[in-house]
Amino acid sequence: MKVFFLLVFAIPVAYLIVFILGRVRQAQIKNSLTLVDAKTQELKIQEHKDHHHTEAVLEQNSQTLSLYRRIDGSFILKIVLAIILSVVSFIISKVMSWEFSGSDYIVVVVMSMIVTIVLPSTLRAMYVRKRVKTLTAELPWMIDLLAVSIQCGMTPEQAFKFLATKMSGINPDFVPFLQRLVRRTEMSGLSNALYHFSREIPSTETRLFCAMLEQSLQYGSSLYEQLMDLSREIREIQLLTTEENIGKLSAKMSVPLILFFMFPVVIIVAAPGIMRAIANG
């Protein structure tokens, strides 16, 4: 009877949390629609979709991401995982001889539901953001290889096709994205393929790379020189970002220093005088 009561109480709470999260996501997308610039609006909506295009590509070669997506997309799986987590918690409480009241059991069930609802989507977003960050950091190396291939006499289409077959031994993370770019180039042209490539790896560096390639193809400038300059500029941007993060560390470290160093030192220095004053008084 208690288990039935817990389930009856937990399922409406879980539905309420899913409804609230959906409303928040819709509100974020509506706010992005108020932007004036259409290109910036499109980029904002893409960010609110949690790198949907990137996730679709990464999922093909990642069982972990596929598992996160299946759990996040199935409410029944979430309920089953919440029940398993609750049962495990109850077993641990019995083994450790913890005394739980009826309200404590309800809290455990509700917390299990919240964890199983929120955690899969959070892990999905964290995984995709980490992969995008890694791909963006290694983009200059791919640009260098592309520039060398073009300098050897290949066209951009041939260079991308060559890299799609050879990058597995250098950086396999780029392989599925380059393969999709090659297939789109064969079907609808390089310009459309570059547009989708910039959406599948959503970062400022990737957009600069695709925009530079389109301009070079349109105006006939030297691709090798442009690619090498872009690679150098992206490395400088990444270096400036790293230096900025290092500069922020001093301000961030001041908080734990004040909390865990200055206050104890003040207490240690002032405590003997305070204790003598109290004893004399």
TrEMBL record:
Transmembrane stretches, start-end: 6-24, 75-93, 105-123, 257-279
Membrane topology: Multi-pass membrane protein
Subcellular location: Cell membrane
Keywords of this entry: Cell membrane, Membrane, Transmembrane, Transmembrane helix
Superkingdom of origin organism: Bacteria
Stretches assigned to the Type II secretion system protein GspF domain: 143-269
One Pfam family it belongs to: T2SSF
GO (cellular component) term, any one: plasma membrane
Database matches in InterPro entries: T2SS_GspF_dom
Primary site of residence: membrane
Entries under PANTHER family matching the protein: INTEGRAL MEMBRANE PROTEIN-RELATED, PILUS ASSEMBLE PROTEIN
Name of this chain's protein: Tight adherence protein C
Protein's organism: Rosenbergiella nectarea
Organism taxonomic ancestry: Bacteria, Pseudomonadati, Pseudomonadota, Gammaproteobacteria, Enterobacterales
